[in-house]
Amino acid sequence: MTKLRVALITHFWDGIVQRPHHWCHQALLQGHEVHVFTFPAPFNQPTPTASIQPSPHVHRLSRWPWLGVLSRIGFGEQATNIQRDRLVKFVQTEVLDRGKAFFDVVLYAGIPWKSYNFSDAHALLLYDAMDEWAEFGTLPPMVDDWEKKLIKDAAIVLAISEPMYQRLTMSTETDSVMILPNGCDYEFFASAIRPQDSELRRKVIGYTGAMHSWFDWESVIAIAEAYPDYEIYLVGPCASPPSVLPPNITLAGKQPYSSLPAVNITYEVCLIPFLRTPLINSVSPIKLYEYLACGRPVVATPMPDTEKYAAPGVVYLADTPSAFVQAVGEALVNANEPELIAQRRQIAYENTWASRWLAIEARVEPHRKRLCSGSAGS
């Protein structure tokens, strides 16, 4: 495909590596020029992209000190909304007005937030529907209407799962939606070398990812109590853990993306313990494929991706504390069987970010002549 200039609009550039970072990385690998438009970097927080090829063009909204003041005096939600409003104006000016004849593709990979004027833009609009935004209690009810406007303007809509695809196609009556689950950087995670048992301080059952309102603490505590000889190692930002936890649960905090393969490979069994909610029912967990790339068995809440690959020795499904305890026991029996390790890795190999991006390019290809007729793509 001819080199394209891509504007990637996202709310999720700092903190942890997520889906927008992988789109950026894959586009750069294919020779496209990517400009990221996002929030200011948080104070005293390192960039999350140290082990992913970053774009040399990251355009950040300017800082506004009063936002910090509002947050400190109890107006955090209002401060966040003001910041999102400012990002809308920033993108409108830099991408849709000044950059109108510059960008070939606009990839919107963030929360639908009020109305952008995409209708007369030269660029092809892609909307990445990453989550069921209306299920987040912190977002206003209008987010549904804002999303519908984005979908109406978009030439291509990326739905992260089958349930989301069904919702978007039914509610918007559009044929622009394609299912595109998350994936993994297979080579990066599969290259990790598992330590010998003698090198491990303690056998570990682990989880890597954010722990917010959807995290199933009850099941994790039940696992810890059922397997006291194992360390339950939880890696990632943790919003509000229970005040009392079993002594074999370790909250390891957020760790750099570059360390995750070495962390995941030490787990005997990997966990994805989420509460069954409308939000989770449409999720495509990146960690599923990253765990499998490391060759580890997974015990997870039923979700579209975990249900697709559920099989003994590979992915076990559980939706109650007792079911999690039982499934972990079954997974431990054959966690290190070479044939099963190969089977797990094969699934990850078939679900890479590279293949996901090529699927996007195939969908963009019919629009290529129009894109390249402008000054940017020629």
CATH superfamily of the largest domain: Glycogen Phosphorylase B
Shape designation: globular
Q: Roughly what fraction of the amino acids lie in strands? A: 15-25%
Number of strands: 13
Helix content: 25-40%
The top-level CATH class of the largest domain is: Alpha Beta
Reported CATH architecture of the largest domain: 3-Layer(aba) Sandwich
Examine the coordinates and then state which fold CATH places here, giving the name of the CATH topology of the largest domain.
Answer: Rossmann fold
Overall structural domain count: 2
Termini gap: 12 Å
What's the structural blueprint in terms of helices and strands?
Layout: E1 5-9, H1 19-29, E2 33-38, E3 57-60, H2 66-72, H3 76-97, E4 105-108, E5 124-129, H4 143-153, E6 156-159, H5 162-172, E7 177-179, H6 186-190, E8 204-208, H7 217-226, E9 231-235, E10 249-253, H8 260-264, E11 267-272, H9 286-293, E12 298-300, H10 304-308, E13 315-317, H11 321-333, H12 338-349, H13 353-364, H14 368-372
Parallel strand pairs: 1-2, 1-4, 2-3, 4-5, 5-6, 6-7, 8-9, 8-11, 9-10, 11-12, 12-13
Using brief descriptors, characterize the structure shown.
378 residues; alpha/beta; Rossmann fold; 2 domains; 6-stranded parallel sheet; 14 helices; 13 strands; globular
